[in-house]
Amino acid sequence: MAGLFTGSPKHEAPEPLEGPVVATIIGGTIIWFALFLVQLPFYGWFDDHGHTWWLWTCLAGGGLGFIGIWYVRRRDAAIKRAAADGAAAPDPSAAAE
């Protein structure tokens, strides 16, 4: 395994992809809750067959999705704030010329 990380990389790492992160997390959260609600009427069948964890997995996915929505909205706001601060701040190298 030590040989795997030796030497320099052969190419530059690509830029990270930035897309509609907030919308993606909201969509995923809605899907998790929808799956929970669709399975809820069949709770007796899941309980009889020992598969109630399917329901609770969907509920946990929805709950964690709410945490994810909170996180990515704050992250998105911080990125926009940093971009606005960077655009508003004068360039110190331009003053030296």
How would you sum up this structure, described in words?
- With 97 residues, the chain is mainly α.
- It is built from 4 helices and no strands.
- α1 (21-39) packs antiparallel against α3 (52-88).
Give a brief description:
The protein has helices spanning 21-39, 43-48, 52-88, 92-95. By secondary structure, the chain is an all-alpha fold.
* Strand percentage: under 5%
Overall shape:
elongated
Counted by DSSP, the helix tally is 4
* pLDDT < 50 stretches: none
Secondary-structure element series: HHHH
Terminal Cα separation, in Å? Answer: 51 Å
Q: Over all CA atoms, what is the radius of gyration? A: 23 Å
Mean pLDDT: 87
Number of separate strands: 0
Helix content bin: 55-70%
Strand count, sense and barrel status of the largest sheet are:
none
By secondary-structure content and strand pairing, the structural class works out as mainly alpha
Task: Please render the helix and strand layout as text.
Elements: H1 21-39, H2 43-48, H3 52-88, H4 92-95
Helix pairs in contact: 1-3
Give the tags.
about 100 residues, single chain, about 0% strand, mainly alpha
